[in-house]
Amino acid sequence: MLLEVRDLHVEFHTRDGVAKAVNGVNYSVEAGETLAVLGESGSGKSVTAQAVMGILDMPPGRIPKGEILFKGQDLLKLKEDERRQIRGAKMAMIFQDALSSLNPVLSVGEQLGEMFVVHQGMSKKDARAKAVELMDRVRIPAARERVGQYPHQFSGGMRQRIMIAMALALEPELIIADEPTTALDVTVQAQVMDLLAELQREYNMGLILITHDLGVVADVADKIAVMYAGRIVEQSPVHEIYKAPAHPYTRGLLDSIPRLDQKGQELYAIKGLPPNLLAIPPGCAFHPRCPMAQDVCRTDVPPLYEVTESPVPRTSACHFWKECLHG
User: Fold this and answer.
1) CA dihedral sign of residues 212, 18, 92, 72
2) What was the pLDDT predicted at 190?
3) pLDDT in tens, 257-271
4) Highest averaged pLDDT of the listed ranges 12-16, 89-93, 185-189, 299-303
């Protein structure tokens, strides 16, 4: 197994109390596999990824419990300089806002080349040549002429390609892509996703794709983990979850996707708001917004049930997963 996250908890200590951002997350990724992590803003998707990468601000963040195993080694037990050797070289992250993630006063060539200077001891001249190669690899036109340009001189889609190039620089075994298509138009979104899928196949990398958009992942993910209030509420192979979701929250996300056959109809939206992580509701955290909620949902936290009626392994944190599956 390439990456295995076991019972991970992350909390943030604030003036108002302790915000429990991640509450017992478990997932795994193998080489060449794509895991899509879905959920609304505040569900814990990005915090989990930051914990995996070792880039959480601590304090105020804290990891009171859990394991993050990369090729069998628990990353949480490593010293910071040991984690730094893994970041970039073994695992890398593509951030959602390329413009704020790139340094505005350094050329893209300097920022791409820095990976080779720091990790491989290359000269600046050789590192610049590698930067041009990477820009070509992610299909940035006229890479040799543009390597000296600055981030603001590139479009949003091209900046995102530069972020992908930075992540690929040292050919890591795992890439975490955090909302890589945010703020891009639909055509560019498709191009970025196709590029990621192509590079993943070429390098046989594990890929964790963080998104709130079920429509983005349909063609690229192997399996999906749906998060709500810091917990994974459903895990399933991608096609099974589209065919028949086993959790009301997943069903709500699917129903929120605009469809061509619903022209003129009101767009569905899940009622209410995600919970305050300082005061997560008792029982099932989704019950205040759930159309299927009953008394047991308000008192008992549902475990991850095995969806026994599925032909493939699936889990759902819903007391009434059978009714949802057949709904």
Assistant:
1) negative
2) 80
3) 777 676 777 878 899
4) 299-303
pLDDT tens for residues 197-252?
A: 888 888 899 999 998 777 778 888 999 999 999 999 999 999 999 999 999 999 99
Per DSSP, the three-state class of 194 is helix
> How far is Cα 229 from Cα 212, in angstroms, rounded to an integer?
14
Biggest alpha carbon–alpha carbon distance for the chain: 67
Separation of alpha carbons 159 and 104, rounded Å: 12
| Strand-pair category, 17-29 with 3-14 | antiparallel
Average predicted confidence (pLDDT) for the chain: 90
Task: Convert 270-289 to b/e letters by CB count within 10 Å (16 or more is b).
Answer: beeebbebeebeebbbbbeb
Placement of tokens 């998060």 in the chain: 227
Name the DSSP class of 293: -
CA distance linking residue 228 with residue 280, whole number of Å: 11
Output the six-digit token pair for 1. 């197994």
Tokens found for residue 301: 């936290």
Q: Do the beta carbons of residue 324 and residue 246 sit within 8 Å?
A: yes
The CA distance from 244 to 314, in Å, is: 11
Distance CA 66, CA 207 (A): 21
The neighbouring-strand residues paired with 101 are: none
